[in-house]
Amino acid sequence: MAELKNHGVCGTKRSASDETEAIKFDPKKSMAMVPSLLEDPAAAIANTRHEFGEHGGVNMSIEASATFTVMEPETMRRMFAGELGPDRDFFIYSRHFNPTVLNLSRQMAALEGTAAAYCTSSGMSAICAVLLQLLASGDHVVASRTLYGGTHALLAHFLPRTSNITTSFVDIGDLEEVEKEIVEGKTKVLYFEAVSNPTLAVANIPELCRIGHAKGLTVVVDNTFTPMVLSPARLGADVVVHSISKFISGGADIIAGAVCGPSKLVNSMMDLRQGSLMLLGPTMNAKVAFELSERIPHLSLRMKEHCRRAAEFAKRMKKAGLKVIYPGLPDHPQHQLMKSLVNSEYGFGGMLCLDMGTEEKANKLMNILQNTTQFGFMAVSLGYYETLMSCSGSSTSSEMNREEKELAGISPGLIRMSVGYIGTLEQKWSQFEKAIAKVDGLVKS
């Protein structure tokens, strides 16, 4: 678990006296240290505790140990009893807590403005752990009908089969429908993506949170598409989940996830007897955590450029007569809503969609963009410095059947594009224009 309280910039080793004087962790104390709800995410990250290396290095040391020693036998009993913990630099085993992973978790909590966070081995492990902690057999979820394919499959197929947990999928933009589907005493979670994958529909986070909280629900928001751009917890969400593999990593070389939320929830997920994270063990490797912690400080710079280029490309694609979907365009259905929710200076996100009408035309364009003009790569995932393109219906949303895709607004020719920032903007636009000139019968807006 990550605490936002300031322990100072320089850590010191524990002594035997530290062990006897340490007190049990009180999560209420950390709540007072949560950054202002209005604080810029970059400012919040800059205010987190900086870990120096063991020998004074400006970068922290990697704690690669799986297990940790204690100075006195009684200490181990007290740690397992919950009397001593990572908030006082007491560690048992790296599946529980690891100092390097804990530092990354602090950064993630600051990024999302939550009291705590825990980093996991993948985005799906973070989502699964949250839902399994919040839900029990017979419980019900109300979720957006437009979700990442893996999340949809988890809610539609896996959880009903294994845990008797059911989900009603709704148009998350229809607030009346959302409220209508909530079953008093049974519905426990409202789940949606801040900006939907892949259709880029924008959720009215404050209103959805108002509805959920009025009915006693826990509101869980996936913010993978819009780190820095949107801050769901600052807008009222209880829990924010991430696939860190995407924009936060930025290198398309790491699989990782995060749960950001209240201390009480994260503590419960790490409980020795009942915690989903503790018992399922989606542990992040300390070396991965180190890599990621070195990238978060420049996330704001990367996101600004992703967003700037996506906005400019979307505008030019629209002018060229293409059917483009981007929240930053005035004709996007939720443009004004997103404009009212975004953090200043971060734009409208680094994702855009082109609807080519048919899968055949989508594939033809992507083939030319990659293999002829070198505009980008045909690959799933997002947040890379190169532009990544995929036909969502036959790739990242392939877990959904035809009817589910139609309801979600995923057309057969929808190209999801994660706009990169390598090269110059004009260079990349020229490559795109050359590709478009080679495709006949373009779908016009």
From TrEMBL:
<dbReference type="GO" id="GO:0030170">
    <property type="term" value="F:pyridoxal phosphate binding"/>
</dbReference>
<feature type="modified residue" description="N6-(pyridoxal phosphate)lysine">
    <location>
        <position position="246"/>
    </location>
</feature>
<dbReference type="GO" id="GO:0016846">
    <property type="term" value="F:carbon-sulfur lyase activity"/>
</dbReference>
<dbReference type="InterPro" id="IPR000277">
    <property type="entry name" value="Cys/Met-Metab_PyrdxlP-dep_enz"/>
</dbReference>
<protein>
    <submittedName>
        <fullName>Methionine gamma-lyase-like</fullName>
    </submittedName>
</protein>
<dbReference type="Pfam" id="PF01053">
    <property type="entry name" value="Cys_Met_Meta_PP"/>
</dbReference>
<keyword id="KW-0663">Pyridoxal phosphate</keyword>
<dbReference type="InterPro" id="IPR015424">
    <property type="entry name" value="PyrdxlP-dep_Trfase"/>
</dbReference>
<comment type="similarity">
    <text>Belongs to the trans-sulfuration enzymes family.</text>
</comment>
<dbReference type="GO" id="GO:0019346">
    <property type="term" value="P:transsulfuration"/>
</dbReference>
<dbReference type="InterPro" id="IPR015422">
    <property type="entry name" value="PyrdxlP-dep_Trfase_small"/>
</dbReference>
<dbReference type="InterPro" id="IPR015421">
    <property type="entry name" value="PyrdxlP-dep_Trfase_major"/>
</dbReference>
<dbReference type="GO" id="GO:0005737">
    <property type="term" value="C:cytoplasm"/>
</dbReference>
